[in-house]
Amino acid sequence: MFPHNSKKLPIQLLIAVACTKAAQADSMSFLSSDTLPLNLTQVIAVPANTQATPPSGAGRTSISHDLYLMGDVGVEITQDVKFKNTTDFSGAQFGLDTGMRFDLGVGCDITNFFAIEATTGLIWNSISTISGTLTSSNTPFNFNIDGNLYNVPIMFNGKFRIPITKELNSPEIVVGAGIGTLWSQVDIDSIAGISNSSSGSAWAFAYQATVGVDWKIGSRLHLGVAYAFLGTTQLNFGADSTANALYTNSILATLRYEF
């Protein structure tokens, strides 16, 4: 027994001495056994709130960046612009050549898989012909035109990004939809080679849908390809100049830069 006035050794030191002696006496003791239910070294060294790093194939677990800039450019086909019948003509329509579409916008990642965007841009087509029937004489007409159709969409979009694999930087399928408005401008320089400068503009409700694939090519940069469909309600360019809805189809190269 310890003397009455002796100081007691700290309990931790007693345990350490006992464990050392036991380990030296028997290298196959329970201290070296694989069946030890708790690893005391890990319990002491690792904080209780530490989480293990997920494997590389566990998928995306956090958002690296919230805001981003986006842009796209590509070829575009707009269905011929058809005008409602008037007292002067019936079945009149503009024949449009294949055009171009450009868009710029800013977006925000709400979750790992969903983002919202505000975009604007320009859709341009040259006007090649105008055709229809003169009401007064019931005579069909078809003239070459030198003119242009400009459409400026202002859209608010939602986009879902779906990783193709579980890897962190997996390519993504991007599906989106949006609503907004579209300003349309028609400029005519000549009809059948005769100078005839005229123009008109109109506003309409617009809606669109997109689908594409994105690839990450840098720490903040994404490159992709997408198909976009855009439609509108009818456009009123003025008296006797109300056109049916516009429908456009575009194949676009897309770029996204994350902040």
Report on the structure:
A hairpin with a 6-residue loop joins strand 2 and strand 3. This protein is mostly beta strands. Mean pLDDT is 83; it is low at 27-48. The radius of gyration is 35 Å and the shape is elongated. It starts with 10 loop residues before the first helix and ends with a strand. The chain contains 2 helices and 12 strands.
Order of helices and strands: HHEEEEEEEEEEEE
Q: Provide the domain count.
A: 2
Beta strand %: over 45%
Helical residues, percent: under 10%
Number of helices: 2
What's the CATH first level of the largest domain?
Mainly Beta
Number of strands: 12
Structural class call reads mainly beta
Radius of gyration: 35 Å
Distance between the termini: 71 Å
Query: What do the pLDDT scores average to?
Result: 83
Q: What does the largest sheet look like?
A: 8 strands, antiparallel, barrel
List low-confidence stretches.
27-48
Strand order of the largest sheet: 1-4-5-6-7-8-9-12
Mass-distribution shape: elongated
CATH topology of the largest domain: Porin
CATH architecture annotation of the largest domain: Beta Barrel
